[in-house]
Amino acid sequence: MKKIVAKFGGSNLKKKEDILKLVRVIKAYNKPLIIVVSAFYGITNHLTNALDSVKQDEAQVKNLVNFLLGLKEEVINENFEDKEWAKKTLEAVEKRICELERFLTGIHYIGDVPEFVEDVVLSYGERLSSLILNAILQSHGINSEEALPEEMPLITDGEFGNATVHYQKSEEGVKNRLKEDKIYVVPGFYGVSEKGKITLLGRGGSDYSAAAIARCLNAESLDVWKDVDGFMSADPKLVKNPVRITDLSYTEAAELSYFGAGILHPRTVEPLRKVNIPIRILNVDTFSTAIIPGTIVHSQETITLNIIKSVTYSDDFCILSLKGAGVGMKKGVLAKTTSALDMAGINIKSVITSQIAINLLLSAADIKRAYQLIEKLQLPTVTELQAIENLTTVAVVGEGILETSGIAGRMFMAIAKKNINARMIASGASPVATYFVVSSADKDASIEAIHSEFFG
Question: Domain residues of the chain, as ranges?
Answer without folding.
Answer: 4-228+263-271, 310-455
